[in-house]
Amino acid sequence: MSKPIYLFSISSHPDAISINSLSITFFKPSIDFSKYDYLIITSKQVSLALKQYRKEQYLDKKALCVSTASAKSYEDLGAGVLEIGAGYGDNLTEIIKSYPKTTKWLYLRAEKVASDFVKKCHDDGYNIDEAIVYKSDCSQEILDVEVEENSILIFTSPSSLNCFLKTHTIDKNSQIIVIGRTTAKAVPKNRDYILSNETTIKSCMQIALTL
Questions:
Q1: 5-21+139-208 maps to which CATH number?
Q2: For residue 199, which of 101, 65, 98, 45 has the smallest C-alpha distance?
Q3: pLDDT tens for residues 135-157?
Q4: Which residues, including other chains, have CB under 8 Å from residue 166's CB and lie 6 or more apart?
Q5: Of 43, 58, 62, 158, which is most buried with the most CB atoms under 10 A?
Q6: What is this structure's pTM?
Q7: Dihedral sign, Cα of residue 28, residue 109, residue 41, residue 47
Q8: Where are the chain's structural domains?
């Protein structure tokens, strides 16, 4: 008998028990998009936040996106993508450093972020401003969920894993799949995990369905 698969994400999958792990609050800070050459986007939530602004304010700005999912969400707005990273924030540093230091970047971000790539770039003299356009809190659903023992648990962000661990422990017979290296850093140090081949839910599910 196959193990139950729990997907902790703001997205769902038909072959998993999907738990909406985060409650999102959007902000609308005043932004002069014309000051910047490019945007930096590390979450699909940013594209949702951008819907609060008039499209003509940002539509001509290409974005450096952390993953294919965040890139698609920006393209769905009708905007263009500059480059796509390998799915985790730390990888963006080398991409940013391949552009002139005179390039003006705007990082649209969450209130709390897991990567310090902006600081690394600042330390080397790169020009990146930041604007907080959303925050995420633990959803009541993830805090209250009852998980069977001997399950497969898929975590798609460090915050989803941290929220789960606030009210749960992971039993020794359950298996953990994480969507990327940044999420992997949030796994308790004494636990093994499987890193997905790509930073997509599809890739995580492909692994889960073979276990």
A1: 3.40.50.10090
A2: 65
A3: 999 999 999 999 999 999 999 99
A4: 138, 143
A5: 43
A6: 0.80
A7: negative
A8: 5-21+139-208, 25-137
